[in-house]
Design a protein that fits this description.
two-stranded antiparallel sheet, mainly alpha, 298 residues, 37% helix, single chain, 2 domains, elongated, 4 strands
Length: 298
């Protein structure tokens, strides 16, 4: 019998990051090893097709052995298996290289076989459970439950469906903005500090979510077509002209600059009401006695 392996130092990816040690990263890796996401993550995904009776309902624990297998993968991962094109190395700094590295690790875990969920469980949850009809519209199942709704052009991805498994600074949770947003300097600094620091490890900045302070945003089409905001040029298909709007209203959650505009309108309205009240008061004080009630007889 082979002697048990002694855990080595956690792998040091570009920039000496600590991402793989965070609870969020470990939970994500474990679900990829498991082969199915947990129910809570399924509900949390933007444009999730989960409904009552879906096979994923009640799937709130990982299969036996998932945690141990995930921990072994993390502790013995060889960073030399990662590959970077020369232009990528020249274009990205250490913090961005970490994001590319994490994506490659997610691809490896997605492709890892065998999964601890059975093929039948995965097939039922992905294909059979994904079909739904809502308001007479039929929604076909997606080929994987690990996805971001705006990054599903897997027919042109280098790793095919595996490249759908990713993290972007483009919200993919319910009740978050659909727009592409830029990190605040404070968040970017905290992110870089966490990735590049040595001991002591600073608090984890994850998850990084957009707030009303993230005013610099783009609609998905304009982000890539006009402003060239993308990590990889192949990540999303986009038509040459902007598609018609599909949203009837614009909310302050998606367009936080509207909140400032509404506040200015409210302040202007209050000032106008105050001026009108003062003018009415002045008019009542300067009017002759009985002037308002006197009317000439017919």
């Amino acid at each position: 019998m082979d002697a048990p392996r002694t855990p080595q130092q956690p792998p040091k990816l570009p920039g000496n990051p600590h991402v793989l040690s965070t609870a969020l990263a470990f939970a994500t890796m474990a679900q990829l090893v498991n082969g199915l996401p947990l129910e809570a993550n399924g509900w949390d995904a933007l444009e999730s097709l989960l409904i009552r009776g879906h096979p994923l309902i009640g799937h709130d624990t990982l299969c036996d052995g998932v945690v141990e297998q995930t921990r072994e993968f993390r502790d013995f991962f060889d960073e030399r298996t990662l590959r970077f094109d020369a232009p990528v190395l020249q274009a990205y700094q250490d913090a961005a290289l970490v994001a590319v590295s994490i994506h490659q690790i997610a691809v490896l875990l997605f492709q890892l076989e065998p999964k601890l969920s059975t093929p039948e469980e995965a097939r039922r949850a992905t294909l059979e459970g994904g079909r739904r009809i809502y308001r007479e519209r039929r929604f076909e199942p997606r080929p994987t439950l690990f996805f971001h709704v705006d990054y599903m052009d897997y027919d042109q991805y280098p790793n095919g469906l595996a490249d759908c498994v990713d993290l972007y600074f483009h919200s993919g949770r319910k009740y978050t903005t659909f727009r592409v947003w830029r990190l605040l300097d404070s968040k970017l600094n905290a992110f870089a500090n966490f990735l590049l620091s040595t001991e002591p490890i600073p608090p984890s900045p994850f998850p990084i979510l957009a707030s009303d302070a993230n005013l610099h945003r783009h609609d998905p089409w304009g982000a890539i077509a006009l402003h060239h905001v993308f990590r990889d040029p192949w990540e999303r298909k986009f038509p040459p002209t902007k598609p018609p709007e599909t949203r009837d209203v614009r909310s302050t959650g998606d367009y936080p600059e509207l909140a400032a505009m509404f506040t200015q309108l409210e302040e202007a309205s209050r000032e106008l009401n105050t001026e009108q009240a003062a003018s009415n008061e002045l008019s009542s004080q300067t009017a002759e006695p009985g002037e308002d009630s006197w009317r000439p007889s017919a």
